[in-house]
């Protein structure tokens, strides 16, 4: 009987060690997921900072803000989980589960908002044509700087193609001969923006390319959430098993102290 009890105790210890190892590995994966999620949010904010004039509202940044918040919780939860793999604490295990629930709520909200904005993206960048029409050709003008930076970064010209520039007031002021130099294809060093040499200009418009870039970032946030949820499920199951097999602390029944009266004083035995 004593041997059987020792065997069961040894098996329980091995099982707990295996669960703690799994917890440690999954928490390291949680760090990696947190970094990826955080980078997706940073990338979206960086792109928005350069293209903010094209958007009628700033709400498209909400998925990025929630994603960054989720990334911070993921990193903090990963650290807490790694600590839990080294010690037993019911209080910290409960806190760990609570943080996983918070992350689930943040990721769900970010994913839902990202999907909403991906569907409404075309209407949210309705200011695209307006920004191009107010182009002044000066780097000190915010609209002009945004247009040039967009055309150079995305290698595009105009809203739909270079012919959109033919209807702008800036094109008329230049004598109706040139489009901005940022329209020039980098493979043609001699390009000066002349519409008579349109083959040296970027063929695609900017609106489609900007939409594709933001669609990609929003889709990354949407499809990143299931990965976070999968890791969370494994962690919840692991912690649940650890909490289930948590060794109970031994409790000792305290006896009522004995006392005897001596000289009117009570003496308590410890």
Automatic annotation (TrEMBL):
Pfam family, one: Tetraspanin
This protein's UniProt keywords: Membrane, Transmembrane, Transmembrane helix
Main location: membrane
InterPro entries: Tetraspanin/Peripherin, Tetraspanin_animals, Tetraspanin_EC2_sf
Compartment(s): Membrane
Membrane topology: Multi-pass membrane protein
TM region(s), chain numbering: 21-46, 58-83, 95-116, 220-240
GO cellular-component term (any): plasma membrane
UniProt record similarity statement: Belongs to the tetraspanin (TM4SF) family.
Name of this chain's protein: Tetraspanin
Organism the protein comes from: Amphiprion ocellaris (Clown anemonefish)
């Amino acid at each position: 009987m004593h041997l059987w009890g020792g065997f069961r105790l040894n098996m329980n210890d091995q099982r707990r060690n295996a669960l703690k190892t799994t917890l440690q590995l999954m928490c390291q994966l949680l760090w990696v997921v947190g970094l990826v999620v955080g980078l997706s949010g940073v990338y979206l904010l960086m792109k928005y900072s350069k293209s903010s004039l094209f958007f009628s509202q700033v709400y498209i940044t909400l998925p990025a803000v929630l994603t960054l918040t989720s990334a911070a919780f993921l990193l903090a939860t990963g650290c807490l989980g790694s600590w839990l793999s080294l010690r037993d604490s019911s209080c910290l295990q409960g806190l760990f589960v609570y943080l996983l629930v918070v992350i689930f709520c943040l990721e769900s909200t970010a994913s839902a908002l990202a999907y909403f904005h991906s569907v409404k993206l075309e209407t949210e960048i309705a200011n695209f044509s307006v920004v191009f029409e107010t182009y002044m050709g000066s780097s000190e003008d915010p609209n002009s700087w945004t247009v040039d930076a967009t055309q150079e970064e995305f290698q595009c010209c105009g809203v739909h193609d270079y012919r959109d520039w033919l209807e702008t007031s800036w094109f008329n002021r230049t004598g109706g001969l040139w489009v901005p130099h940022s329209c020039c294809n980098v493979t043609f060093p001699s390009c000066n923006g002349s519409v008579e040499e349109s083959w040296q200009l970027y063929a695609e418009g900017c609106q489609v390319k900007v939409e594709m870039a933001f669609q990609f970032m929003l889709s990354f946030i949407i499809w990143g959430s299931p990965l976070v949820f999968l890791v969370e499920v494994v962690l919840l199951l692991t912690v649940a098993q650890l909490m289930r097999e948590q060794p109970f602390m031994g409790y000792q029944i305290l006896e009522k102290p004995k006392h005897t009266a001596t000289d009117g004083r009570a003496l308590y035995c410890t």
